[in-house]
Specification:
Blueprint lengths: L1 H7 L2 E5 L5 E4 L1 H7 L3 H4 L8 E4 L18 H6 L7 H9 L3 E8 L5 E10 L5 E7 L1 H14 L12 E6 L4 E5 L1 H6 L9 E2 L8 H12 L7 E8 L5 E13 L5 E10 L14 H10 L3 E6 L4 E4 L1 H7 L3 H4 L5 H4 L19 H10 L4 E9 L5 E12 L5 E9 L1 H14 L10 H18 L3 E8 L2 H8 L1 H18 L5 E6 L2 E7 L4 H15 L3 E2 L4 E2 L3 E8 L5 H17 L4 E4 L1
Parallel strand pairs: 23-24
Antiparallel strand pairs: 1-2, 1-6, 3-4, 4-5, 5-6, 7-8, 7-12, 8-9, 10-11, 11-12, 13-14, 13-17, 15-16, 16-17, 18-20, 18-23, 19-20, 21-22
Helix pairs in contact: 6-14, 16-17, 17-18
Protein name: Diguanylate cyclase (GGDEF)-like protein/PAS domain S-box-containing protein
Pfam family, one: PAS_9
InterPro entries: Biofilm_reg_signaling, GGDEF_dom, Nucleotide_cyclase, PAC, PAS, PAS-assoc_C, PAS-like_dom_sf, PAS_fold_3
């Protein structure tokens, strides 16, 4: 099992009973970019730069630790904590926190750290790199707030600088503490910067005073608190306000706390007993199964994640837990390669052509919940010395759910709930591609409400919004499974329809759209009847998505020219 843990890439740090690093896995050494020999024997966690804020940034500082044991709070507020501080904390209870990690090459990572006490008086830390997951969530959030300058950087500490006066004018509550300010509403000069780092900060301020549009200026420095305590801060700033002559006046930015970078490396003792304890007490689900495919052993974390007892799992086929999910495409039209079947993956591990195999899969739990996990398979040995397989099952449900939520928000219209232009264009590309592969035809109907401005002018925007929602519901009720109704913006909608065999089928759809829209709408004090100018276009695969949409747009203008309240085809 020890060799499997090394081969799996798991990043583990072991502290002995004095708080010194006794062992680190190769996976951890790769994570921080240092040689294991540099880390063993250290009594401080030099790579621990400080706890990372929550996934929503400055408005979500992460878990409330006010009720945590004092030893926990002390650990999470100390720069480069001593190993003894970790021991004090885990003796008061398990510690779980996201922290900023500094690599030897200067690169910064975000890692999830689980620290737990061992039976010999030491501690074991599991360090998982979650930088990619956070980067993915940040990218999706950026799609929702491109007008906000600070979103391009990080959701940590937000601040505003007066470039002329050289003052930090404002920072959020967390930023006041991070940047060495006594409160979020008190302005102090940049003199809180450590004297040795002041030249670098001054260069950064000078760069901001001449920065062009969109230019980001970065700086790393120390700030000195009221009691002489120092905190490392990394900032990314951009100009937010300019004077009449275009000169930069103010800048906004974000700051990360790098103080608690962990400097000491942990080490595993190397004994099978310690590795077995890691298996049993590890915060990530694990299972051990033999070449015959039956589960030999599971740990408590796996049972908790799966909501099942160990007695139910031991002896069961491992394939039930580690097989990849079924092909979600159904028609085989997807571009993603299918995951290797479990038997093929295990053969690769046995033959040495792969050290570890990763896959994501879904679990339907007894409680009715759906959970997602990343399953990592590696080769190890059983208690009898026979080859066996070790699987790590990491819960990624929250990450998947957040990504799906942000993706939906980025691809849907907030007023009507319909897909937006980006989603419509994506669906149109899919429909045209499917038609080109299989034939059958696809169509686009461009719907523009007639005289919608009159509704807003006479009844108010609230009534106009209600009318748009009503039209959206009607169009949604018209489309078939596999088709799409979307709002492009304003009073414009589009329908993307697959399997439209000919012009007659297209005409039937257009007639239904016009008929459905003209049904009277009750807007509270008034009942109104609206009409629409509809442009329809169909292709057997000879038109590109852009050409098909342009054809429908032209046809819509022909319908307007024909007197509105009708449809025309291109």
């Amino acid at each position: 099992m020890a060799s499997a843990l090394e081969q799996s890439g798991v990043a583990l740090v072991l502290l002995d009973e004095t708080g010194r690093v006794a062992h680190v896995t190769a996976g951890f050494a790769r994570t921080v970019g240092r040689d294991p020999g540099e880390l063993v024997g250290e009594d401080r966690l030099s790579w621990w730069l400080g706890p990372t804020l929550g996934p929503a940034g400055a408005d979500d500082p992460g878990p409330d630790r006010s009720a945590a044991p004092p030893a926990h709070r002390a650990l999470l507020s100390t720069a480069v904590p001593a190993g003894s501080a970790v021991l004090d904390a885990v003796r008061a209870g398990d510690v779980e926190v996201d922290v900023d990690v500094g690599r030897a090459d200067g690169q910064l990572l975000v890692a999830h750290v689980d620290a737990r006490a061992t039976t010999d008086g030491g501690a074991v830390l599991l360090v998982r790199d979650v930088t990619a997951a956070r980067a993915q969530a940040q990218t999706l959030r950026t799609m929702l707030g491109r007008q906000q300058a600070v979103i391009a950087a990080s959701p940590d500490t937000i601040y505003r600088i007066n470039l002329g006066a050289g003052l930090v004018e404002w920072t959020n509550t967390g930023g006041a503490s991070l940047m060495g300010l006594p409160s979020a509403d008190r302005s102090l000069p940049l003199a809180v910067v450590h004297p040795d780092d002041a030249p670098g900060v001054e260069r950064a301020v000078r760069s901001l005073r001449t920065a062009g549009p969109g230019e980001v200026v970065e700086c790393t420095y120390r700030v000195v608190g009221d009691y002489g305590d120092e905190r490392w801060v990394h900032t990314r700033s951009t100009v937010s306000d300019r004077g009449a002559a275009g000169q930069p006046v103010r800048a906004v930015g974000i700051a990360q706390d790098l103080t608690e970078t962990i400097t000491t490396m942990d080490a595993l003792a190397g004994s099978e007993r310690r590795f077995h304890e890691i298996f049993a007490r590890g915060p990530v689900g694990m299972l051990l199964f033999g070449l015959e495919g039956w589960i030999h052993e599971v740990n408590e974390a796996l049972c908790t994640f799966l909501e099942r007892d160990a007695s139910e799992l031991v002896g069961a086929p491992a394939a039930e837990l580690v097989d990849p999910p079924a092909d979600p495409c159904g028609d085989g039209g997807g571009d993603e390669p299918a995951e290797a079947p479990t038997a093929q993956a295990l053969a690769a591990l046995l033959e040495g052509t792969a050290e570890v195999v990763h896959r994501e899969r879904r679990y339907d739990l007894p409680s009715g919940r759906t959970a997602w996990a990343q399953v990592s398979l590696s080769l190890t040995s059983s208690s009898t010395g026979e080859p066996a397989f070790l699987a790590f099952v990491e819960d990624i449900t929250a990450r998947r759910n957040e990504a799906e939520r942000l993706e939906r928000a980025a691809l849907h219209d907030p007023l009507t709930g319909l897909p937006n232009r980006a989603k419509a264009e994506e669906q149109l590309r899919t429909a045209v591609g499917r038609t080109q592969r299989r034939g059958g035809g696809c169509a686009v109907l461009f719907v523009d409400l007639d005289h919608f401005k009159d509704v807003n002018d006479t009844l108010g925007h609230a009534a106009g919004d209600e009318l748009l929602r009503d039209v959206a519901d009607r169009l949604s009720g018209l489309v078939r499974t596999g088709d799409l109704a979307a709002r492009l913006g304003g009073d414009e909608f589009v329908l993307v329809c697959q399997d439209v065999a000919d012009a007659k089928a297209l005409a039937a759809i257009a007639d239904r759209v016009c008929e459905r829209i003209t049904i009277p709408v009750d807007l509270g004090s008034r009942t109104v009847t609206v009409t629409a100018s509809v442009g329809a276009a169909r292709t057997d695969g000879g038109l590109s998505p852009e050409e098909l949409l342009a054809a429908a747009d032209r046809a819509m203008y022909r319908a307007k020219a024909a007197g509105r309240s009708c449809w025309r085809a291109d």
